[in-house]
Design a protein that fits this description.
It comes from Actinomycetospora chlora. By secondary structure, the chain is mainly alpha-helical. Helices cover about 75% and strands about 0% of the residues. The chain has one domain.
Length: about 180
Amino acid sequence: MRQQELLEAAYAWVLEHGWAGMSLRPLAEAVGSSPRVLLYLFGSKDGLVRALLARSRADQLAVLDAVGGAADLATVGARVWAWLAAAEHRALLRLWLEAYTRSVGDPGDGPWAGFAAQTVADWDALLADHQPHPGTDAAAAERALLLAVLRGALLDLLATGDRPRVDAAVASHLAGI
């Protein structure tokens, strides 16, 4: 119970402050604990990072459930974009971006390893569920392009805040699906 409470408090802290500033001492103080307790409960700082990444991924998987449903690929792409572009999700998406970037730079077995690849696999599976013949090379390429457009649009939106421009770009791509 205490471990889950501390995990949720640490997750809220990381959502607000990001991964870059995560140090055990300030994090422990912010969540009403001590570094020793966090290390005991999570095994190591890497263990805590892995638990926080899993917690973040749970939020991502909840989105997959929310945007799914019986629809074609373009409709699901529009639902995903609407969720990604919503202002109330910016903290989670900044956290995701930071974790994704660290994962790409950590091909080994560190706490970030595999996070980016698993993210791509999760989203690809969602999109494949909305294609008539998902096993074809053409369908896989269509999903990869849609994911690339959504990720690029998200990066632009996070960098510029120019939602009308980015919405128009995503809509243009979705119209061609």
